[in-house]
Amino acid sequence: MTQKALRLGTRRSMLAMAQSGQVADAVRQLTGRPVELVEITTYGDTSREHLAQIGGTGVFVTALRDALLRGDVDFAVHSLKDLPTAQPDDLVLAAVPVREDPRDVLVARDGLTLTELAASAEGRPVRIGTGSPRRMAQLNAYARSHGLAVETVPIRGNIDTRIGFAHSGELDAVVLAAAGLNRIGRIGEVTDFLPVDTMLPAPGQGALAIECTAADAALAAALAELDDPYTRVAVTAERSLLAALEAGCSAPVGAYADLLADGQVVHEMRLRGVVGTTDGSTLVQLSITGPVPASHDEAVALGRELAVEMLAKGAAGLMGERAL
Predict the structure, then answer these.
(1) Adjacent-strand bridge partners of 271
(2) What's the CA gap between 183 and 10, in Å, rounded?
(3) CB–CB of 95/223 below 8 Å?
(4) Which keywords does this chain's UniProt record carry (predicted)?
(5) What is the CATH code of the structural domain delimited by 228-313?
(6) Is the pLDDT of residue 253 over 60?
(7) pLDDT at 262 over 90
(8) What is 1-97+207-227's CATH number?
(9) Do 104-194 and 228-313 have matching folds?
(10) pTM of the model
């Protein structure tokens, strides 16, 4: 007798379909059950406004969560950086799989790196497209500190559209997430990987969230087999920082928690955070290091501790959006 297929809710974009397909394959292997993708259109997919204007928080998530609660799908896959920091009581974050490359990357004309672009600009500003206030803030700050002439240009659209701006010459380059390009097999188009020392990623960037209803304990337990504990505590600390800053998903906040090791032994976690004005004129960038969190609460505490230090340095005044 054929088992009933599990219904996986996903956004319709090429990237969402690719990453949901990868999760579907993993769930099939794990459970032995067929998995079918159910495509759902979200507000973030249909709005033509920039994410910073429509708030960012939850715009790619709400429709998927509504489908879960209606019983239209059994579980859903999100890009973790799109999730609001407050978790609804009736839904459970069943798994956070191993994180992809968290870095931001440049796709530039003529295969150039950021430094090479600036050198080739012949006195004019290098025009770099991004829809992210976080990327704008750090890119402009980097340009200021290195004497580079950079103009950040707000853009929207899918990966093809964004890369097209650079390939057509309309822009000199665009900034994208390495994880997305990896998942759709286009990482070879990257012309420069931006180190996290130059640009901290969005909280949770590169990680996926697999969510189901709290009432479906059996499915939640099965999906939990895909969870990576190190990724989970890292993104929990990052998202705790974001929440404690009272900042939404589209605020100019970067955060990254990485594990510090002696040989094969992981012994500490370092959490870095940044908040800045989009013109790059002012940044608050701090870090904190402590034992690897052994629980959700310890990871949350690490993020809150760094947030307190950043707020004491004036971080609140640099965020264009505060979450309500």
Answers:
(1) 257, 288
(2) 15
(3) yes
(4) Porphyrin biosynthesis, Transferase
(5) 3.30.160.40
(6) yes
(7) no
(8) 3.40.190.10
(9) no
(10) 0.89
With beta carbons less than 8 A apart as the criterion, state whether 93 and 87 touch.
Answer: yes
Q: Which residues are catalytic?
A: 82
Task: Count CB neighbours of 102 within 10 A.
Answer: 25
Going by C-alpha positions, the residue among 304, 285, 216 that lies closest to residue 7 is 216
CA distances from 94 to 115, 137, 301 (A): 42, 33, 21
Tokens of 297: 């609460």
* 172's tokens: 């000199």
Bridging pattern class, strands 126-129 and 150-153: parallel
Query: Residues in the chain, how many?
Result: 324
Does an H or E element contain 238, and which?
Answer: helix 229-244
E strand or H helix that includes residue 173 = strand 173-177
Domain-by-domain residue ranges, the chain?
1-97+207-227, 104-194, 228-313
- DSSP H helical segments within 95-174, as ranges? 114-120, 133-145, 159-167
Tens digits of residue pLDDT in 19-44: 999 999 999 999 999 999 999 986 55
Looking at domain 104-194, its CATH superfamily turns out to be Periplasmic binding protein-like II (3.40.190.10)
Mean pLDDT of the chain: 89
Helix (H) or strand (E) holding 35: strand 35-39
**Contact present, 80 and 249 (Cβ < 8 Å):** no
